Structures
1.
Amino acid sequence: MKQAFKYRIYPNALQREYFAKCFGCVRFFYNKSLQDKINAYEQEKKTINPTPAQYKEQYEFLKEVDSLALANAQLARETAYKNFFAHRSQFPNFKSKKNDQSYTTNNQGDNVKFSDNNRYITIPKCKRIRIKKHRDFIGTIKSVTVSMTCGCKYYISLLVETNDKVQLEPSKDILGIDLGIKSFLVDSNGKTYKNPKYFAKLEKRLSIEQRKLSHMQKGSKNRNKQRIKVANIHAKINNQRNDFLHKLSTKLIRENQVIAVETLDVKNMEQNKLVAKSVVDASFSRFLTYLDYKAKWHGRTIIKVDKYYASSQTCSNCGFKNEKVKNLSVRSWTCPNCGTKHNRDVNAAKNILSEAIKMLKAGAQPDSLLILESIDSLSKKPPLQGVIA
């Protein structure tokens, strides 16, 4: 298994200058070769694969940086092309120096190594970079990616081949979760996790700093300082959000053998102007991605219920469908058929769990003894209304 470990680094002035050269050369080669590739197809209807060696005679500054960085840029360009023609992504974009900068090199002959009690790291053509190694790993380093954020902070990401796959103790618990904006997550046991709304909390401060930036003269030193200040606010929001999503997803994976979630059409939700900003702030797609890969790492199961399943409108006790609950302002309702009182989100989570169990029994998911044991264990707990049909 390959796993990435990301650390903060603190390069000195010479190292920052070398990184700037690498970022610029990788960006130049990627954009130049991509343009040549496009021109060759448009003018001669042929496909070419430009290599770094073809440009080094004309552009000698390319010889000053790590050759493997340019080779990896070539691989990234070709991968982007293949993904486009396989309908997995859009056509490759040109790289911009206004975004985060990065380059990737490989570990050959143990030229990536730590020293001085893991306080420094050496990479090709750059020795003794101060690093904050906040966690250890066991495995072989395959490649290294050096990156610089818009806020001028440097990071290094190590791709490690490791067998250190943590298998958690089997759990008998199975959980249904409903994602929302008012409350980030409500589970089928009735537990609610508040939506932290990190962007909303810093939105006023961000708007003030952006307004200052817009009034400054382009190219001035003060404008660059203000640009870094704005970028660091964006980075803080992103870091807070990532921290929350990682901790919550890890907690759910550790406690439950099976987690049932609703398949969300996030792009469609973002088109609604009333909730678009809140949807982006919550970052549901990222949370579901974290759940998915952590489940694979730790031997858990994620069951995805169809997005068209009316989880909020269906009574989890008797199955009656109440069309009036389509209105999002209805947060609680009483079933006209059986008289059961429902909280909208808890009821939805119970229905998602019930639908997931039906899918398991129908064989829609791979057979697993632990999954079946989890379902059977529900009968030993206080009953949840509508869990098993």
2.
Amino acid sequence: MNKAADKIMHGLFLVCGLIAIACVCTITIYLIISGIPAIKEIGIVKFLFGTTWASTAKEPMFGILPFILTSIFGTLGAILIGVPVGFFTALYLSKFANLHIKKTVGFVVTLLASIPSVVYGLVGMLVLVPAIRTVFGIPDGATLFAAILVLAIMILPSIISVSMTALDAVPQKYEHGALALGATECETYLKVSVPAAKSGIIASIVLGVGRAIGEAMAVMMVSGNVANMPKLFGSVRFLTTAIASEMSYASGLQKEALFSIALVLFVFIMLINLVLRKVMKGGKENA
């Protein structure tokens, strides 16, 4: 009976894995088929390095360099803010906080993760954008800076929860050994626990990067959604928002160009995942 159950579960897991692989392959093939024609017609250099996006003009132009740079700067900014805050919050909750604080903050983190992105965008548009306009004395607070702050908040739940799980999983004998050798608690946690949980912490950053790059609705509501070259206090448009804002009425070459943007975004995310996986693998080998 146990052998039969094991075979059934093995087959079920295999089918689920094959379905996941099939979905990824289908999406990849569809994006390639849909995105390549526009890149060929526009020209890969003009498409990737052109600085003007005027898809509805009499003589349309399809340069997406502003979108690419905006997505890169927005993601990097969110990581620079969100990763340190998320990591040190996870470290505090895992190693320093008492059980009551850990449960309370853990509940808040779970709540943050469950909030729809449109709510983040709405709060950002009604609270954050006017605050930036007032504090910095600029005409419009819907800027790249506002998008970075919203994205930094949105990636916190992933970083905190996954990093905390990784830190909790570190065997206590590692920490007890370091403490027995005379290390302080801070030295033990930073030099023993964190390296031991490195793979999980990097995995949390991967999840955060994925959410930051793939977010559309929230950043559309707080970034101004204008196809400008990125400036910290200027209105900008991300790769994701370019697709979301025009796909509903696009046709012809414009629609094909939007699929090409989706293909660029897909390749961009794949490259980041490959780089981070390489870093994780290198960290395991060095360990």
3.
Amino acid sequence: MNQLIYMDNAATTRMSEKAFEKMKPYFLENYGNPSSVYQFASRGKAAVDEARETIAGLLGASANEIYFTAGGSESDNWAIKGVADSLKAKGKHIITSSIEHHAVLHTCEFLEKQGYEVTYLPVDENGKVSAEELLKAIRPDTILISIMFANNEIGTIQDIEVFGRIAKEHGILFHTDAVQAFGHVPIHVDEMHIDLLSASGHKFNGPKGVGFLYVRKGVRLTNLIHGGSQERAKRAGTTNVTGIVGMGEAAGEAGALMTERAEKIRTLRDHLMERVLAEIPYVKLNGSKTDRLPNNANFSFRFIEGESLLILLDQNGICASSGSACTSGSLDPSHVLLAIGLPHEIAHGSLRLTLSEENTMEEVDFVVDTLKKIVERLRNMSPLDEDFVKEQKKEK
């Protein structure tokens, strides 16, 4: 198989052709600035309004509760910093989890330097946050709870409705980073008691560099970006018409095809997981087996380094990512894998495969067959594997 096999859809997704086609006129023909008053500019404004309506509809929200941003990181920053500043007179305590995306964790660390207190909730071996732990962490000065909808590394889906209800009962605002979940699993902000929600277009076949923040009506946020009066004077900057149009089209497509896509992807993913766990020794599935994004498979292989695994997969035309942070220049393994209890030496040998509806069963089988050969090759070169085999022989 000489073609490229892309299984890193948690990192980014292929652009929807329908979304791409819908964007094109706003580059070349209807390129007016929607903030302008003349009729030509109104075409872009109407397209932005349509996208806002589409996205709101998927969440059970109102269009005036959707604010467009440059992506998930900005949305997370705005939600957390905006609440922290607007409610600082009420309290300076924030609750989050230990496995959040760095857009949340680093924002919370920034606020800690400004005098805020943050509680980082632990997770169990499946990456689940406990409702009991959340309840114990709540204080009179708690102003925000931020827990991600689904983890970007191990795919575990949290009990968002339960956490949202707890927050509501205690009069605390509830934010969820839904960057990995929006467009892939059903989300209803009222039923789940969500006050703020972050999402990013390129995670559901939309363009990069555009996202949105849902803000429940009545929630006060300090502005993150100052300047013009765009986004109802809440987020300055020339409106990214093309990006918003593409994201809106991709969101509508994702909503219409969600059940069909999830069923197909889950079938491929389950076949992948079953073969890997059955045919490769000393491997562990990371994350929940049941409460999991349909496209996510994350494994830890003992006695090997994730970086070497990625390089050899790439040489075979397979795009994947590792739970190890080696590829970003850090010697430390993933904070998520450490949080679920993996020791450093096992966390370093992790692999994340995230599928899409464009993958085939033939590709899945090729990936597993290739992975088996690579793991065997790397283990034959590993002193850790050699020591383990010697210990096993002694015990016999």
4.
Amino acid sequence: MEKEKIVVGLSGGVDSSVAAYLLKEQGYEVIGVTMVNFREKNLPEGERSSASKIVEDAGKVAHFLGIPHHVVDFCPQFQESVVDYFIKEYLFGRTPNPCVVCNRYIKWKAMMEQGEKLGASLMATGHYARVEQLSNGRFALKCSVTAAKDQTYALYGLTQEQLSRTRMPLGSYTKDEIREIAAAIGLPVAKKPDSMEICFIPDKDYARFIEENTDISLPKGNYVSKTGEVLGQHQGIIHYTVGQRKGLNLAMGHPVFVTEIRPDTNEVVIGDNEDVFAPALRCSHLNPMSVPDFEDGMEVFAKIRYNHKGAPGVLERIGPDELLVRFREPQRAVTPGQAVVFYQNDYVAGGGIIDGSVKE
């Protein structure tokens, strides 16, 4: 009987490597594919790019597992769909999550297209999440068995077609168990540390990256209070996000926070801690997942950023592609540009992109 072909996104890390191993053990014909998405500019002499390190480590893993390995350059698509989007959002005073966009439009779309060229109808990744088909016929993400490592938040944008062809073998394991498997089989990257930063900004200096990758002059502007009083001068709106306290260089005599960013007037609004909380938010660019559509009165558990513990809320339809989410208790730092993801009973109901907080 011919084995079913599946492409696995090999990043050279422990998770994707063990995912490939587990799928091979399950009887799939596994094909490793490494995507080169971004190459750093102006590297110090003698320093290798992260892209070359990823390709090298992924190649070692593929050789160790005895699977074919393909390296595909997706830099142009990544630049247009992810990097340009990331920069534009910051210039508009928003704080984007580029991983959400990358997963849907680069990783899954590009990987599936590459898989089809190689004769594979399925794809897999090393994400800590599970895919299930529900009784209503829809495919949905189910939270990983380990809440500390669950990665469903950044995957809420996947389509039904993408989910139906996706396998996520790590969703039933803890990170420690994956490390143990890697060590037990002698995987060459078994002790490689996890990557925690945005892949194209390894030093986490977003403002520097934007300044180096745009021809736009980014002027300083005013810090203002919610009543319009000028409090000082900021360094440019790309340096700030809602809820930020550090790095403001404002001597107010008490802790103050960014409560709003106004790109039209180049102002950063400053307030007290209580000003950072909001009872509701507006979101758009909706993607239903476990449900066919979002209905008025639908109760959800909503996460407003990756490391947010989540909070109970109720959905209200306010437009064809727009929802109001009312929380039972006000939430801190509702940030435009971030994803809001809705959960019901450990399944992702869907989500959208936050447009702003609603102070009512």
